[in-house]
């Protein structure tokens, strides 16, 4: 009955948005209240659950998304995006630009959380799209597939890293196996699948549409790439330097502070203001006007993401994920496939890859120990399942839809299907690895 209620509530959300054209944020709020009541949450606790869900999502993403939008707008307005597109096309050529995007997304995705990488890479994607009149999904989906797969499969991302500890796996070996599984999944869900999406119309946010400037007006190539990739460099340094320091090092707290994603984005915004703004002849008032316009463009996106967090919190507090896991725990199946399936179903109902992965871990550990399943492969199986079935209760779904200006139907045909492709490819890769290393 619980699963049926979840399905009905999700269907209602889709109908409100797509059929009755209700604003997505308002639809999320209405469905979150109804879902809480239907699942038996105390009515007095539902408002606080919704507020907590919104706060948790925005608390981790608000600074990152707003600062990222400001950076993206400045990259576009200053001509840096145009310069980056010119250099990228000169190196890879128009024919292979997809693979350039995949490589960039993969390298960036290893040290970066998905939400951060998405916000940072969207301006680069759109700069190529606008400059060379290429289909937005054809260019953007391969890069975002790479970001998503690294988020789900590879340490040091939160869910895989936590699974390594819970399953007592080997971090290095899991990363090695993860790379072997991730690369084919990215190729299938990225460049190959994106070729089928050229006809889907996308209207990317105009905020990231770069002005056509003359070569003399453009910033230098080094300045453009350095500013756009500076967040990646800072976060990578902050991830690896602590590994080289003693736990009692006096500089470690400062490294951790400077490596916080929100702090990184603010540092980068200050640097960008100088390099792409003031040194390019822009007045500070003009730069602030650019930043204000960027906020207007993503205000609704923030609200929609907050709404998805509200629904996710209601589902989580209702115990849906634990009930689903209990239903499936006694199913006779290959342990790797069973773990994948549990994670996939929880992801569908709850909307969070991290919650799906960590919830599955608590259920699958006894089974894994009983069957002596390879813990490194179990991490990857759960990670692959946690990427499945992204839809309207997933913040990533709405970020993709709103940034690329897609209809709900086309978001399902592109983003949701891509996520399921990489999830299935990941499972097949894990099962094949089991045969090889057995």
Automatic annotation (TrEMBL):
GO molecular function: gluconate transmembrane transporter activity
Listed Pfam families: GntP_permease
UniProt topology in membrane: Multi-pass membrane protein
A GO cellular component entry from the record: plasma membrane
Regions that span the bilayer: 27-44, 56-76, 96-129, 136-154, 174-194, 225-245, 251-277, 298-316, 336-365, 377-400, 420-437
This protein's record includes keyword Iron-sulfur: no
Alphabetical keyword list: Cell membrane, Membrane, Transmembrane, Transmembrane helix, Transport
Compartment annotation: Cell membrane
Family assignment from sequence similarity: Belongs to the GntP permease family.
Protein name (Swiss-Prot/TrEMBL): Gluconate transporter
Natural source organism: Pedobacter kyonggii
